[in-house]
Amino acid sequence: FFFLLPGVSKMRFVQFKQGEQARFGVQQADGSVLDVCTTDASIPTNTLEVLRGGDAVQEKIKQAVASGQNKLNADQVTLLAPIHDSQKIICIGMNYVDHCTEQNMPVPTEPVVFSKFASCIINPGEPILLAPEVKKLDFEVELAIVIGKTAKRVKKEDAMQYVAGYTVAHDVSARDWQLEKNGGQWLLGKTCDSYAPVGPAIVSTDEIGDPHKLAIKCRLNGETVQDSNTEQLVFKTEAIIEWITKLVTLVPGDLIFTGTPPGVGCFRKPPLWLKDGDVVECEVEKIGVISNKVSAEAE
Fold it and tell me: Whole-model pTM?
């Protein structure tokens, strides 16, 4: 994939807003953003179209980055979710050994797959909506895989060729709707509006290094509530992609939420539910932090 091309390696891809205009950019180590769409107006202004754009767009981004032009300081931009309107968000449940242990559940022998609607993606800093119908709102920090090219029946050893990079995801979950209502189907409890904060950047695979040796943490009002490492993943990137693509074609921009470590609210005694005004920070090493405040939604 194009992140491996000379001059385009070790990249952090973002979507940002400057004034009222939102577009695609490349974040630098100091937090500044290269506004590559201004450097070359033919580069798509959103990440999804960049990923779909193939070799021609990849080459344009490489040249725009190499030019170093149109650099915006961090305080000139507001970072948005690094991708919107993905065709699919696929999630893997029960995928941390230590998360299974806290539930006294056996470690799965096959990936547990469910989904969220892409309409629940929100930006860092945007409110997580607490609907009056939800009484058991919970937090889940996750490492998310971003798919870079169309994948069907991919072998494990080839899987990383299809990965554009990784980002941080918050798999917000209404446990009452996930586990007690809706006939036992998880979907509604996972996909209410605003239940997928994502960001702050999509970090290329070479910048990440080993994605399965990253610290992963969640903080609630400044207190650490989840603290683990992606080495605890039961099914890692390659195995997940091999499994899913036996049955489902993955396309550029698809997101795979890889599961959450222990510490979630529902397995605490007593349970710890999110309430109006709570601030949740989700962090993955080498990617960054997203912070979102819970906001009670009027009926």
Answer: 0.96
Residue among 152, 118, 156 at smallest CA distance from 254: 118
| Alpha carbon of residue 134 to chain centroid | 23
Q: What is the pLDDT of residue 9?
A: 61
Distance CA 163, CA 146 (A): 6
- Are 289 and 122 spatial neighbours (Cβ–Cβ below 8 Å)? no
Write the pLDDT tens digit of every residue in 260-275: 999 999 999 999 999 9
> Among 230, 233, 218, 229, which residue's Cα sits nearest to residue 272?
218
Buried b (16+ CB within 10 A) or exposed e, 23-36: bbbbbbeeebbbbb
For 98, residues 6+ apart whose C-beta sits below 8 A from its C-beta are 228, 232, 261, 262
Output the DSSP codes for 92-144: EES-BHHHHHHTT-PPPSS-EEEEE-GGGEE-TTSPEEE-TT-S-EE--EEEE
What confidence tier does 59 reach under pLDDT thresholds 50, 70, 90? confident
Both tokens of 24, joined, read 């695609």
3-state secondary structure of 93: strand
Rounded to whole angstroms, the Cα distance separating 167 from 63 reads: 24
Residue whose tokens read 């798919």: 147
Question: CB–CB of 175/136 below 8 Å?
Answer: yes
For residue 121, give both structure tokens. 């993606």
pLDDT at 111 over 90: yes
Span of 5-9, 12-16, 181-185, 197-201 with lowest mean pLDDT: 5-9
Higher pLDDT, 99 or 7: 99
pLDDT exceeds cutoff 80 at 24: yes
The gap from C-alpha 240 to its chain's centroid, in whole angstroms, comes to 15
Neighbours of 73 (CB within 10 A): 10
Spatial separation of the C-alpha atoms in residues 245 and 71, rounded to whole Å = 39
Type and span of the H or E element at 34: strand 33-34
Cβ 298 vs Cβ 276: under 8 Å: no
